Amino acid sequence: MRPVDNLGIAIIVGRSMKEHVSVALVQMCTQWLDPRANRRKMLEYVRTVCSEAQTDLIVFPELATTGYVVGREADFNERFIEASEPIPGPTTEALGGAAREHGVHLILGLARRHPRIPATLYNAAVLIDSEGAVRGVHHKWHIPAEEIHYFYPGSTTEVYPTDLGTIAMMVCYDSEMPELPRTFALKGAEIMVAVYNWGWPKGTYGPGRLSRMAAVRALENQVYFLACGKTGVEGPKSFYGNSTIAGPDGEIICEDKPEHPEGEKVIRATLERRALVRIRGFNTPFRNRRPELYGPLVEPF
């Protein structure tokens, strides 16, 4: 078992954040229920992004291999299950090879088949390291709306020490619950990555939800927060992107403000360890916590 500190948090032994971390969020359209086409597209993006500039981490959106789900519909449900994958599987193997070739870390969302129970799925985020190995998997905790007909909730709170720093992952709605990002922060996360399929009825556009979310979660946890959304149209929904990178002071480093839902783009920034150290040296929310008073947070309704 891992040792536990005096806050009751399991101690994760890892490296401190790299001095400069170059990140790229790929705001892409997906081909509905076509994992082969989406896999090819991600591989092409890895080649392009790495050829344009030195890059340490590339992030793809939620459910990047399949596209999003619809309401309860027997035919679609069956097709979606067939388009899902195990881990390891075709996508993690292919992207692992690309990560190793280009020396880059990758994070992507996919529909993961349960390792034992047939036709049972998780909405997963996967971290592949620069040697091509699957370093970590997060199963979405909070399952909203149409997704309840497809996915089982996860329950782990792992963070992953890497050569870039300690990384935590979450999937879409997870980021709206402040308890999960704070847990990641207390376990040592320096870079939090959230992958999204945030959609609205076709023809309408949501406000800058991801940029606000990234800024708040970054500020309250003094971390870098990367929010990678997708774009395009699937069935009844438009996905508006708004991919955002926020710094540990809550300032937006870079964001997408889309005018058209079909527009794909790559959002780039360089994360600096010095900025994280400076803000944590000036402000001390972890030291000022009063966990003995927070009991109502874990009491059921």
Describe the protein's architecture and organization.
The structure is a single chain. The chain has 301 residues and is an alpha/beta fold. The protein has helices at residues 35-52, 74-83, 90-102, 179-186, 209-221, 273-282, and strands spanning 20-27, 57-59, 105-113, 121-128, 134-139, 160-162, 165-171, 191-195, 199-201, 224-228, 231-234, 237-240, 244-246, 252-255, 265-272. Helix 1 (35-52) packs parallel to helix 3. A hairpin with a 2-residue loop joins strand 6 and strand 7. The protein contains six helices and 15 strands. The strands form three sheets. A six-stranded mixed beta sheet has the order 5-4-3-2-1-15. The protein starts with 19 loop residues before the first strand and ends in a 19-residue tail after the last helix.
Secondary-structure topology with pairs:
Layout: E1 20-27, H1 35-52, E2 57-59, H2 74-83, H3 90-102, E3 105-113, E4 121-128, E5 134-139, E6 160-162, E7 165-171, H4 179-186, E8 191-195, E9 199-201, H5 209-221, E10 224-228, E11 231-234, E12 237-240, E13 244-246, E14 252-255, E15 265-272, H6 273-282
Parallel strand pairs: 1-2, 2-3, 7-8, 8-10
Antiparallel strand pairs: 1-15, 3-4, 4-5, 6-7, 9-12, 10-13, 11-12, 13-14
Helix pairs in contact: 1-3
